[in-house]
What does this fold into?
Amino acid sequence: MSIPIGPSPVLESPFPAHADAEALGIAETPAQQLWRTFRKDRLAMLGLYLLLALVVVALLGNLLTDFWVVFDPKAVRLPDKLLPPLSAASRALAKDLQPPFHRYPFGTDELGRNVFARMLQGSFVSLSVGVVAVSISLAIGVTVGGLAGFYGQRKLGPISVDSLLMRFTDVMLCFPTFFLILTVVALLPPSIYNIMIVIGITSWMSTARFVRAEFLALREQDFVTAAKALGLPEWRIIFRHMIPNAMAPVLVSATINVAHAILTESALSFLGFGVRPPYATWGNILADGRSYIFDAPWLFLIPGAAILTVVLAFNLVGEGLRDAMNPKLRKRAG
Amino acid sequence: MWRFLVRTIASRLLLLIVISIVSHTVIHLAPGEPTEVDAMNPMMKAEDIARIRKSFHLDDPIYLQYLHWMKDLCTGELKSFRDGLPVVPKIWERFLNSLPLFLCTTVIVWTASFPIGIQAALKRGSRYDRGTTFVAYTLISIPGFFLSYLLILWVVRSFHLPVIGLRTFGTEGEGGLQRMMDRVWHLVIPSLMAALTGIAILSRYVRAQMLEVLEQDYVRTARAKGLDEDHVVYGHALRNALLPFVTMFGLLLPGLISGSVIFEQIFAWPGLGLLGYEAILARDFPLILTLNFMAAAITLLGILLSDILYALVDPRIRLE
It folds into this structure.
């Protein structure tokens, strides 16, 4: 899939430095080449800026909500229930409960908690659910795919390592994923870590297939033969020479998987199996907010819009990376 | 061809057995027992619980439980933990509810995606193309239930249409036509909402596939021959671009069971997804396991079907 936004005329202007480098036959590193193509994709760059902003907000928010009492997302202010965004806090509140500037930027919820503070805390939790889940799935996927690709020919009794691992991947692919996640999350004791782990171990299959395919291709490459001829140990060939070269398609699917994980978390919250209090995630703020959709629509709209923006940003960056890595498109754009 | 069929079906059956063992083990090893669901009920005495556990073989070792489950499933005597009703007819009844929703959604997705995707590919880089791309990404990125809630509010407020459940309460006495229209409205609105994401994803695929094909040499040849543009696009390019989508038909099948939990929950549509959700809440192991098993079986069937379809449509592919 490609993003149709062609290179804009302004960005198309020749880069003298690059032109010189190409004329002199000095190749740029693959990363530079990737960045050069990626930068021309305006939607993808928009996504990247959004993501950077989100990371800053999440880290800052975590600091604020932890160390600044007025930003405490758990502080209950019953006199100030269900206030619309930007409304002033009531003067009846105790001094240390007053929100900053006596205003609630995103309003308050049914217990008078500051939605802005909850969203700040939620940004960190939601993001970490996505990132940790994807890290788990990456770890499993790269291990399984790498083993199948590198040691595939070895025999374990009657069957080869490759067919054993890949049949196992097929088994995992046949499970109805969301249903499986739901089953396991419902049966396990509710905890944020279980949700991360379950999403992780049900989404590694595509990564494993990509890595295996890359490894099969890389194994025949000259630089791997050279590394073997130098007598390098196998782990060094795998970790130093093959995995970095196999990461390109994995990076794309990882980016898009983070988006999926955030959506899955919000779907689980909707069904009542999401992250439990005291953690606020965007998913459970949204799921709780739907009861107040008529009386306090901001409780529903704000987290919904936030999830939409972040997931969109991840998807745009993922697709932009995919396009930038596609050699056919790169030739056309560059 | 026949050798291929026999061999794949045999290996798929083996896979299915492995899947059933894995899912059985996962569910039985996970904490939470069916007898604990109603733990606070004072009427449940210890001997009652022991009796229930015995009648559902819950005290047997896990491999015996697996064999019991398989035997009961094959003889059709598998009973639900919750109400003691046979599982298979229960699933069949819900399946009949899910089927119209699934069919309606699929028809909407497949009829809408192709024109949108083809147009976007033909007008690559235009305002229309960029617009549909952005809308498609937005639809893919939005949480399904968030969008549905907003759309329900809009539909109910501006068109006064019924949306929840299979039919409106109290319409039993109405005439036949009225009842039918009521059911159609109840079906169309959820299908449309469930179809939105599908259209977004599929039209992107159509676009990418068309772009790929439009750059092929045979399309240039067709143009060079002086064929009119419609003939080139629909007769030469589209027919070749369609090939991969044939395989997607087979992969649609699993959506029947697992794809609909959220939408059936939102619209109180008594289908398979909602059945699974209720079974999970009640720790109804036989029902959960059977649904999982059927979903896996349908997935495998879908993959097989798409392999065969592909070979039938594309003469270059030989199954061996």
Remarks:
- The longest helix of chain A spans residues 234-270.
- The longest strand of chain A covers residues 87-88.
- The radius of gyration of chain A is 24 Å.
- Residues 208 and 241 of chain A are 18 Å apart (CA to CA).
